[in-house]
Amino acid sequence: MPRRKEGEISLIKGILWSVFLITGWCLAPTLLSAQDKANKDPKTPQYEVYVLLSASWAAEFPRFTSLDNDDIKEKFKETTPVTFAYIKGPGVEMVFNAGPRKGTVFEVIPKGSLDLIDQKTLLASLGVVSAKIKTAVIDATCFDHLGGIDAFPNATFVIQKKEFDSLPSKYSNAEDIEKIMQLKKEGRLKIIEGDQELAPGIKAHFLGGHTQGTQFLSVQTDDGLVVLGGDGLFTYENLKYDIPSPLGLGKEAQKESYKRIRKVLGESDELLVPGHDMEVFRRFPRITERVVQIKLR
Fold it and tell me: What is the pTM for the complete model shown?
Protein backbone atom coordinates (compact mmCIF):
# COMPACT_ATOMS: atom_id res chain seq x y z
CA MET A 1 0.00 0.00 0.00
CA PRO A 2 1.44 3.45 -0.89
CA ARG A 3 2.74 5.36 2.10
CA ARG A 4 0.51 8.33 1.34
CA LYS A 5 -2.57 6.13 1.49
CA GLU A 6 -1.38 4.55 4.74
CA GLY A 7 -0.94 8.02 6.20
CA GLU A 8 -4.44 9.05 5.14
CA ILE A 9 -5.92 5.92 6.77
CA SER A 10 -3.99 6.58 9.98
CA LEU A 11 -5.21 10.17 9.98
CA ILE A 12 -8.84 9.07 9.51
CA LYS A 13 -8.48 6.51 12.32
CA GLY A 14 -7.06 9.21 14.57
CA ILE A 15 -9.95 11.56 13.82
CA LEU A 16 -12.55 8.84 14.44
CA TRP A 17 -10.89 7.88 17.74
CA SER A 18 -10.86 11.53 18.84
CA VAL A 19 -14.56 11.89 17.98
CA PHE A 20 -15.31 8.72 19.96
CA LEU A 21 -13.43 9.98 23.01
CA ILE A 22 -15.03 13.45 22.91
CA THR A 23 -18.53 12.01 22.44
CA GLY A 24 -18.02 9.60 25.32
CA TRP A 25 -16.73 12.39 27.55
CA CYS A 26 -19.73 14.60 26.74
CA LEU A 27 -22.27 11.84 27.29
CA ALA A 28 -20.70 10.44 30.46
CA PRO A 29 -22.56 12.73 32.92
CA THR A 30 -25.89 11.93 31.25
CA LEU A 31 -25.19 8.20 31.24
CA LEU A 32 -24.02 8.28 34.85
CA SER A 33 -27.09 10.24 35.86
CA ALA A 34 -29.35 7.72 34.14
CA GLN A 35 -27.43 4.89 35.78
CA ASP A 36 -27.76 6.52 39.20
CA LYS A 37 -31.52 6.72 38.70
CA ALA A 38 -31.69 3.11 37.54
CA ASN A 39 -29.69 1.96 40.55
CA LYS A 40 -31.93 3.64 43.13
CA ASP A 41 -33.43 1.34 45.69
CA PRO A 42 -36.95 0.70 44.36
CA LYS A 43 -38.13 0.39 47.97
CA THR A 44 -37.23 4.04 48.71
CA PRO A 45 -40.02 6.43 47.73
CA GLN A 46 -39.14 9.40 45.54
CA TYR A 47 -40.65 12.60 46.91
CA GLU A 48 -41.59 15.98 45.49
CA VAL A 49 -40.25 19.07 47.25
CA TYR A 50 -41.68 22.59 46.95
CA VAL A 51 -40.52 25.87 48.48
CA LEU A 52 -43.18 28.48 49.23
CA LEU A 53 -42.48 32.18 49.56
CA SER A 54 -44.39 33.64 52.51
CA ALA A 55 -42.98 37.18 52.48
CA SER A 56 -39.77 39.14 52.09
CA TRP A 57 -37.70 41.33 54.37
CA ALA A 58 -35.97 44.55 53.41
CA ALA A 59 -32.49 44.47 51.87
CA GLU A 60 -29.34 44.38 54.00
CA PHE A 61 -30.60 41.64 56.29
CA PRO A 62 -27.52 40.43 58.24
CA ARG A 63 -26.69 37.19 56.46
CA PHE A 64 -22.90 37.67 56.29
CA THR A 65 -20.11 38.52 58.74
CA SER A 66 -18.03 39.92 55.87
CA LEU A 67 -18.85 41.87 52.70
CA ASP A 68 -15.39 41.60 51.11
CA ASN A 69 -16.68 39.49 48.22
CA ASP A 70 -18.47 41.02 45.20
CA ASP A 71 -21.03 38.18 45.04
CA ILE A 72 -21.87 38.72 48.69
CA LYS A 73 -22.17 42.49 48.22
CA GLU A 74 -24.76 41.88 45.51
CA LYS A 75 -26.65 39.36 47.63
CA PHE A 76 -26.63 41.80 50.57
CA LYS A 77 -28.53 44.30 48.41
CA GLU A 78 -31.35 41.84 47.69
CA THR A 79 -34.48 41.48 49.73
CA THR A 80 -34.51 38.37 51.91
CA PRO A 81 -37.22 35.72 51.38
CA VAL A 82 -39.14 34.17 54.27
CA THR A 83 -40.04 30.63 53.23
CA PHE A 84 -41.10 27.14 54.22
CA ALA A 85 -41.00 23.84 52.32
CA TYR A 86 -43.62 21.22 51.50
CA ILE A 87 -42.72 17.57 50.87
CA LYS A 88 -45.09 14.97 49.47
CA GLY A 89 -44.80 11.34 48.51
CA PRO A 90 -46.39 7.95 49.22
CA GLY A 91 -48.07 8.28 52.59
CA VAL A 92 -46.19 11.50 53.42
CA GLU A 93 -47.29 15.14 53.58
CA MET A 94 -44.77 17.19 55.51
CA VAL A 95 -43.60 20.76 55.96
CA PHE A 96 -40.10 21.90 56.84
CA ASN A 97 -40.56 24.77 59.31
CA ALA A 98 -43.99 26.22 59.99
CA GLY A 99 -43.34 29.62 58.43
CA PRO A 100 -44.13 33.06 59.86
CA ARG A 101 -47.28 34.76 61.09
CA LYS A 102 -48.60 38.26 60.61
CA GLY A 103 -48.05 39.42 64.18
CA THR A 104 -44.29 38.83 64.21
CA VAL A 105 -42.87 38.54 60.69
CA PHE A 106 -42.27 42.29 60.29
CA GLU A 107 -41.97 43.09 63.98
CA VAL A 108 -38.16 42.86 64.06
CA ILE A 109 -37.23 43.27 60.40
CA PRO A 110 -38.94 45.73 57.99
CA LYS A 111 -40.97 44.40 55.08
CA GLY A 112 -39.31 44.04 51.71
CA SER A 113 -41.07 43.90 48.36
CA LEU A 114 -43.59 41.18 49.28
CA ASP A 115 -46.49 41.20 51.72
CA LEU A 116 -47.22 38.15 53.84
CA ILE A 117 -49.33 35.35 52.38
CA ASP A 118 -50.39 32.78 54.98
CA GLN A 119 -49.51 29.09 54.83
CA LYS A 120 -53.05 27.90 54.15
CA THR A 121 -53.33 30.10 51.05
CA LEU A 122 -49.89 29.18 49.71
CA LEU A 123 -50.48 25.45 50.15
CA ALA A 124 -53.94 25.75 48.61
CA SER A 125 -52.25 27.01 45.42
CA LEU A 126 -50.80 23.48 45.18
CA GLY A 127 -54.13 21.87 45.97
CA VAL A 128 -52.95 21.03 49.49
CA VAL A 129 -55.06 21.40 52.65
CA SER A 130 -52.81 22.53 55.51
CA ALA A 131 -54.96 20.70 58.08
CA LYS A 132 -54.02 17.41 56.38
CA ILE A 133 -50.29 17.89 56.99
CA LYS A 134 -49.17 15.15 59.40
CA THR A 135 -45.57 16.17 60.12
CA ALA A 136 -43.89 19.55 60.58
CA VAL A 137 -40.12 19.65 61.09
CA ILE A 138 -38.82 22.59 63.14
CA ASP A 139 -35.40 23.53 61.81
CA ALA A 140 -34.86 26.25 64.44
CA THR A 141 -37.14 27.93 66.98
CA CYS A 142 -36.99 31.36 65.36
CA PHE A 143 -39.98 33.69 65.12
CA ASP A 144 -40.18 33.39 61.33
CA HIS A 145 -40.22 29.56 61.48
CA LEU A 146 -42.67 28.97 64.33
CA GLY A 147 -45.35 31.57 63.67
CA GLY A 148 -47.40 29.23 61.50
CA ILE A 149 -47.91 26.48 64.08
CA ASP A 150 -51.67 27.05 64.13
CA ALA A 151 -51.87 26.45 60.36
CA PHE A 152 -51.12 22.76 60.98
CA PRO A 153 -53.60 21.64 63.66
CA ASN A 154 -53.18 17.92 63.00
CA ALA A 155 -49.41 17.79 62.57
CA THR A 156 -46.82 16.31 64.88
CA PHE A 157 -43.88 18.73 65.19
CA VAL A 158 -40.33 17.36 65.17
CA ILE A 159 -37.63 19.17 67.14
CA GLN A 160 -34.08 18.36 68.21
CA LYS A 161 -33.60 17.69 71.93
CA LYS A 162 -30.85 20.31 72.18
CA GLU A 163 -33.18 22.87 70.67
CA PHE A 164 -36.01 22.02 73.04
CA ASP A 165 -33.72 21.96 76.08
CA SER A 166 -32.30 25.39 75.25
CA LEU A 167 -35.66 27.16 74.86
CA PRO A 168 -36.21 30.00 74.51
CA SER A 169 -33.59 30.81 71.89
CA LYS A 170 -32.59 34.43 71.40
CA TYR A 171 -34.49 34.50 68.09
CA SER A 172 -37.77 33.03 69.37
CA ASN A 173 -41.06 34.68 70.27
CA ALA A 174 -42.59 34.05 73.71
CA GLU A 175 -46.05 33.27 72.32
CA ASP A 176 -44.62 30.73 69.88
CA ILE A 177 -42.67 29.02 72.68
CA GLU A 178 -45.91 28.70 74.69
CA LYS A 179 -47.41 26.94 71.68
CA ILE A 180 -44.46 24.53 71.58
CA MET A 181 -45.09 23.65 75.21
CA GLN A 182 -48.77 23.14 74.47
CA LEU A 183 -47.87 20.78 71.62
CA LYS A 184 -45.86 18.74 74.10
CA LYS A 185 -48.84 18.52 76.47
CA GLU A 186 -51.03 17.36 73.60
CA GLY A 187 -48.55 14.68 72.55
CA ARG A 188 -47.88 16.44 69.25
CA LEU A 189 -44.18 17.21 69.84
CA LYS A 190 -41.64 14.59 68.81
CA ILE A 191 -38.23 15.24 70.38
CA ILE A 192 -35.35 13.57 68.55
CA GLU A 193 -31.63 13.44 69.25
CA GLY A 194 -29.12 13.60 66.41
CA ASP A 195 -29.70 12.33 62.88
CA GLN A 196 -32.92 10.40 62.38
CA GLU A 197 -34.92 9.00 59.46
CA LEU A 198 -38.42 10.46 59.54
CA ALA A 199 -39.68 8.36 56.63
CA PRO A 200 -37.93 6.16 54.06
CA GLY A 201 -35.81 8.60 52.03
CA ILE A 202 -36.34 11.58 54.38
CA LYS A 203 -33.79 12.28 57.10
CA ALA A 204 -33.40 14.98 59.74
CA HIS A 205 -29.77 15.90 60.44
CA PHE A 206 -28.53 17.60 63.60
CA LEU A 207 -26.65 20.76 62.69
CA GLY A 208 -26.28 23.40 65.41
CA GLY A 209 -24.41 26.52 64.34
CA HIS A 210 -27.37 28.89 64.19
CA THR A 211 -29.08 27.79 67.41
CA GLN A 212 -28.19 24.98 69.79
CA GLY A 213 -30.37 22.42 68.06
CA THR A 214 -30.79 23.65 64.49
CA GLN A 215 -31.44 20.78 62.09
CA PHE A 216 -31.63 20.40 58.31
CA LEU A 217 -33.44 17.91 56.09
CA SER A 218 -32.45 15.64 53.20
CA VAL A 219 -35.12 14.28 50.87
CA GLN A 220 -34.75 11.70 48.11
CA THR A 221 -36.30 12.77 44.79
CA ASP A 222 -36.22 11.53 41.20
CA ASP A 223 -33.45 14.05 40.47
CA GLY A 224 -31.34 13.14 43.47
CA LEU A 225 -30.98 14.14 47.11
CA VAL A 226 -32.51 17.52 47.96
CA VAL A 227 -30.93 19.25 50.96
CA LEU A 228 -33.06 21.83 52.79
CA GLY A 229 -30.74 24.03 54.85
CA GLY A 230 -33.33 26.16 56.63
CA ASP A 231 -31.81 28.62 59.08
CA GLY A 232 -28.69 26.48 59.17
CA LEU A 233 -27.72 27.99 55.81
CA PHE A 234 -29.10 31.39 54.84
CA THR A 235 -27.65 31.65 51.30
CA TYR A 236 -25.63 29.78 48.69
CA GLU A 237 -22.77 32.22 49.27
CA ASN A 238 -22.48 31.32 52.97
CA LEU A 239 -21.49 27.79 51.98
CA LYS A 240 -19.58 28.63 48.79
CA TYR A 241 -17.27 31.15 50.46
CA ASP A 242 -17.42 29.68 53.98
CA ILE A 243 -18.64 33.00 55.38
CA PRO A 244 -21.02 32.66 58.35
CA SER A 245 -23.90 34.89 59.37
CA PRO A 246 -23.65 37.12 62.45
CA LEU A 247 -26.90 35.46 63.59
CA GLY A 248 -25.63 32.30 65.22
CA LEU A 249 -23.44 30.68 67.84
CA GLY A 250 -20.23 32.16 66.47
CA LYS A 251 -18.16 31.86 63.30
CA GLU A 252 -16.46 28.57 64.09
CA ALA A 253 -19.70 26.84 65.14
CA GLN A 254 -21.32 27.87 61.88
CA LYS A 255 -18.35 26.80 59.79
CA GLU A 256 -18.52 23.38 61.41
CA SER A 257 -22.24 23.23 60.60
CA TYR A 258 -21.48 24.04 56.94
CA LYS A 259 -19.14 21.04 56.86
CA ARG A 260 -22.01 18.83 58.04
CA ILE A 261 -24.22 20.14 55.24
CA ARG A 262 -21.48 19.59 52.66
CA LYS A 263 -20.93 16.02 53.85
CA VAL A 264 -24.58 15.13 53.20
CA LEU A 265 -24.85 17.27 50.06
CA GLY A 266 -21.72 16.09 48.28
CA GLU A 267 -19.86 18.27 45.79
CA SER A 268 -22.83 19.48 43.73
CA ASP A 269 -25.06 22.33 44.94
CA GLU A 270 -27.70 21.71 42.24
CA LEU A 271 -30.35 20.49 44.69
CA LEU A 272 -29.36 22.62 47.67
CA VAL A 273 -32.00 24.93 49.15
CA PRO A 274 -30.79 27.63 51.58
CA GLY A 275 -33.34 29.12 53.95
CA HIS A 276 -33.21 32.81 52.99
CA ASP A 277 -32.01 33.25 49.41
CA MET A 278 -34.00 34.63 46.46
CA GLU A 279 -31.74 32.61 44.16
CA VAL A 280 -33.93 29.61 45.01
CA PHE A 281 -36.78 31.28 43.10
CA ARG A 282 -34.57 31.90 40.08
CA ARG A 283 -32.86 28.52 40.01
CA PHE A 284 -35.83 26.15 40.18
CA PRO A 285 -38.99 25.80 38.04
CA ARG A 286 -41.89 28.00 39.12
CA ILE A 287 -45.23 26.37 39.83
CA THR A 288 -46.95 29.62 40.82
CA GLU A 289 -45.70 33.16 41.41
CA ARG A 290 -44.60 32.20 44.92
CA VAL A 291 -43.90 28.48 44.64
CA VAL A 292 -41.04 26.57 43.05
CA GLN A 293 -40.45 22.84 42.75
CA ILE A 294 -36.98 21.66 43.69
CA LYS A 295 -35.92 19.74 40.61
CA LEU A 296 -33.40 20.01 37.80
CA ARG A 297 -34.55 22.01 34.80
Answer: 0.85
